Amino acid sequence: MLKKTRGKMLYLCACPIPGRVPGQAGQGLDQPEIVGDVPAFKTSFKVLPAQAFSESVMQTSLIPPDTLYFFGDNNFTEWGPLFQHYVPPPFRIPGTSPAYSFGIAGSGSGVPFHWHGPGFSEVIFGRKRWFLYPPDKIPHFHPNETTLAWLQHTYPTLPPAQRPLECTLRPGEVLYFPDRWWHATLNLDTSVFISTFLG
Predict the structure, then answer these.
(1) How far is CA 72 from CA 15, 100, 102, 142, 150, in A?
(2) Phi then psi for 177, rounded to 5 degrees?
(3) How does pLDDT run across 64-86, given as a tens digit for each residue?
(4) S-S: 106 plus which of 27, 68, 122, 171, CB 3.0-4.6 Å?
């Protein structure tokens, strides 16, 4: 996750992730890094020292959750420098090609139940809770209801046999989501993550 390019250290995040970032904890955190500056969902970059990036991530946790959710439709021209330094999960499905999507999201945000092709999701910073159902088990949800509202109102009413499979991803952890499996996510903290879609 850490690579030297043109004399600068580039980071995906401000904090070392055990087992995913080479070097010692804290090494080079005063070097410049590339981060996404995404107010109002603008896609632009700015160079920040790691300490300033850490402080900006902490400040985003003060923003109401519905104001910060950036994910998908990453223009590879703009995001290419980030993706070329990303070390993807070492797992493959024969005959597929990876497409990366970078995301930043506020605490309490997420996506309601949906499905698509297979892939992986990795948390870089924060925590992301996942709820999954196999393709033949359609979840009880309203597509315009947030995952947080679903968790607070619908989830407690579900009999145990109708509850989803679930887990919480932490930094450096990866989840494989199979083809056409229903899934919803809830960011428990301000989160930074990368998904690898296999097509």
Answers:
(1) 23, 9, 7, 22, 23
(2) -110, 120
(3) 544 577 777 666 677 778 778 88
(4) 68
Asked if residue 150 is part of any domain, the answer here is yes
In a domain, 77, yes or no: no
Residue 139 lies in a domain: yes
Q: Are 126 and 173 in contact (CB under 8 A)?
A: no
User: pTM of the full predicted structure?
Assistant: 0.66
Q: Do 83 and 3 touch, CB atoms closer than 8 A?
A: no
85 found inside a domain: no
What pLDDT is attached to residue 81?
A: 80
* pLDDT tens profile 133-183: 999 999 999 988 999 999 999 999 999 999 999 999 999 999 999 999 999
Alpha helices in 17-130, H assignment, sequence order: 50-60, 76-83
pLDDT class of 5 with cuts at 50, 70, 90: very low
Range of the domain at 40: 3-65
End position of a domain, from candidates 49, 65, 81: 65
